[in-house]
Every structure is written in C-alpha cells, then in structure tokens.
Amino acid sequence: MNPFDPSFDDLPESLPIFPLPGVLLLPRGRLPLNIFEPRYLAMVSDAMGSTRLIGMLQPKDPSARELNPGVYKIGCAGRIVSFEETDDGRFLITLLGCSRFDIHDELPLSHGYRAVEPDWTPYRYDLEQPVTCEIDRDRLLSGLHGFFELHGIEVDWDNVREAENEQLINMVAMVCPFEPPEKQALLEAEDLSARADTLIALIEMAVLSTASDESAQQ
Predict the structure, then answer these.
(1) What is the pTM of this model?
(2) Which of 88, 105, 143, 197 is an S-S bond match for 203, by CB 3.0 to 4.6 Å?
(3) Kindly report the CA angle at 204 between 201 and 207, in degrees rounded to 5?
(4) Position 213 confidence tier, pLDDT thresholds 50, 70, 90
(5) Model confidence over 53-93: pLDDT tens digits?
C-alpha cells in the first residue's frame, strides 16, 4: 500500500467536487486533468494546501449549460499525485483514485467551486487491496479488438495483455468512449468482478449494434 494513501479515518468530512461529463475515475485508476477555469484553479490550490483530494462526478445531463448542473450522487475521490504549473496559467495534475463516496449533502460555494459532505462508509473497502478475482479475459480481449477497431483507437496490445485484472479493467473503463450513464454503471459496480461483467457487456453491445447497423444499410 502506498504510504501516502489516506486511511478510512483520514478521509475528510468535506470534499471539493469537479463535475466533468464523460470522465470516469475509479479506485487506483490514474486520471490526468488540464485545469484552466478560475474556480477550478482555486479548487486545486486549496486541495494542495489540505488533503489533496478532489471528488470527480458526472453531470446527469451532459448538455446542461447551467453553472452548477445536477450531478450523479456517487462519485470517486482522487488524490493529487502529480502537479505542474504552465506558463499560460494552467495546472496539469494527475489524480489517483482513492475511494468512492455518496453525496450526503452539498455545501455552500467556496471560491466559486462546489463542495459536498461525502458519505464514505459504503465504500470503505475501496481503500483495501482488491481481492483477486477471475474475469473472462479472453472474452474481454476479443471484444476489445472489435471495439477499438470500431473507434479507431490504437493500443499497445502487449501492455494490454500483460496488465493485471484490476489495472486492465480500470484502464479500459476509463478510456473507452462510453456514454455518461454507462460510465456511471461502471463506477457503481459492486466489485471488480461485477465491473468486468458490465464492461464486457457494454463492449459487446457496442460492437453488435454497429454490426447490425452496417447489415441494415447493405
């Protein structure tokens, strides 16, 4: 376990949140972010001076144009593990996923950004080393070949095949261009096995749907 990772008792009672459509963070996943809006620059600055934790959430309506759109009630907190300033006034950061949380209550705005009172209790096992579980890797990799070809995604297949189960599931779930409700379903999966099953189903449905559309057009 990383000595810088928080324990359950270290998790804060308030958490800044960053609603971002179509972006998924999972426990032990790594998410690079380019921060440029003033309110989120303030959020990162404040986080760097305290717990270094930021909650990633998806807006329920990705097309919403209001300043503070409604969000899903389950998100994932990430710890800032990489930080860089740019000459044009941006922060380049990387979050390492720590634990999911439920929104118990939303707090008043601070420096323009949103914050919530998180409930960490249902997900305290996110902070533990994952239990080794079997997943249908052959089925997953077979589906990925078709899915990546469909979306023109180039990957290093040697690295994909060598990845451990959790690393593979997190990587694929976070980078694949799924719709927000599908990303949310992956986040809310009870455990790694359930997340793998959901991921395989989403990949196979996407490939099958495209094949059906192409057949109908012929």
Answers:
(1) 0.90
(2) 143
(3) 150
(4) low
(5) 999 999 998 887 788 889 999 999 999 999 999 999 999 99
